[in-house]
Amino acid sequence: MNGKQEENRRVNGKFKKGKSGNPDTRFKKGKSGNPNGRKNAYTDLIKDFSFNKVNEKERREIIVSKLFQLAERGDLRAMQFIIERLEGKALERQERTNKSEPIKVMVIDDD
């Protein structure tokens, strides 16, 4: 270790609070560490492919049309997909209690 690293460390060898090993390479305040975001090749390919035209229609128009045809024929999954995209997914609610009481168990004997 060099002298600068030693002065930024505690006795146990871990860095002091608020200090890193090399302040010159830390992220600067107000600047993103990943300015261009993560690239996802599959998403980019699918988006590019969906804008291709087939018989004067974009592929995504054809797919949406097929989805609505399936829903009109009674396909519940197609209906659910459309509704979730238009209205949002239904919220699942769970009741939570903070009681510290023990759970009561009833024992029934068959005598």
Enumerate how many helices there are, as a single number: 4
So what's the oligomer here?
A: single chain
Amount of beta strand: under 5%
Radius of gyration from CA coordinates? 29 Å
The low-confidence parts are: none
Give the tally of β-strands. 2
Order of adjacent strands in the largest pleated sheet: 1-2
Q: Name the helix and strand elements from N-terminus to C-terminus, one letter apiece.
A: HHEEHH
Q: Please bin the fraction of helical residues.
A: 25-40%
Q: Looking at the structure, what is the overall shape?
A: flat
Structural class: mainly alpha
Average pLDDT, rounded to a whole number, is: 80
| Alpha carbon gap, first and last residue | 77 Å
List the helices and strands and how they pair.
Blueprint: H1 3-7, H2 41-50, E1 53-54, E2 57-58, H3 59-72, H4 76-87
Antiparallel strand pairs: 1-2
Helix pairs in contact: 3-4
Question: Could you give a short description of this structure?
Answer:
Helix content is 37%, strand content 4%. The chain is mainly alpha-helical and 111 residues long. It has a two-stranded antiparallel sheet.
Please describe what this structure looks like.
This protein is mainly alpha-helical. Among the domains are: 1-27, no CATH class; 55-87, no CATH class. It contains four helices and two strands. Helix 3 (59-72) crosses helix 4. The termini are far apart.
Which key phrases capture this entry?
111 residues, 4 helices, flat, two-stranded antiparallel ribbon, single chain, mainly alpha
